[in-house]
């Protein structure tokens, strides 16, 4: 693909990078919570910050697994549901984010229309890879927003979660990029 040709996979790479950056920033804010505040019941779809972050990881594992062509991994999903500490969640989510980044880095334009079998245990779902990626990124953004709102009822200020995609956001994301060992060239390619 020439430098002037549009790259249909670029948007998926940027969304996976945004996903990693947002998780990093959100986890950094949550690190200021006490264990009690992290697990405390709160008004949300999932009844705590911990349960919501665990759900984000579970759904990542579920869809990444399918996009990689694997069968349902109930052990990985059960583990995601049961992570009790933020430290364990942060490490597991970083590993999941790395898998997603690697997956989208391997994407070729023809892969986007590939039909993926999603093993749901009792049934199979079949959807295009680009539709599953769209669903995954929307889902994760939605639930990070819930954690953001729940942080409002704690002593920790919710972090900014939308300064990751365009060039003008470079200053706002610089610390996160440095912490992850990324350069602007990595993000803006």
Automatic annotation (TrEMBL):
Domain of life (superkingdom): Bacteria
Keywords for the protein's UniProt record, in alphabetical order: Metal-binding
Annotated Pfam families: DinB
The UniProt record lists the keyword Transmembrane helix: no
Family membership: Belongs to the DinB family.
Matches recorded under PANTHER family: DAMAGE-INDUCIBLE PROTEIN DINB, SLR1116 PROTEIN
Protein name, UniProt field: DinB family protein
Organism: Cypionkella sinensis
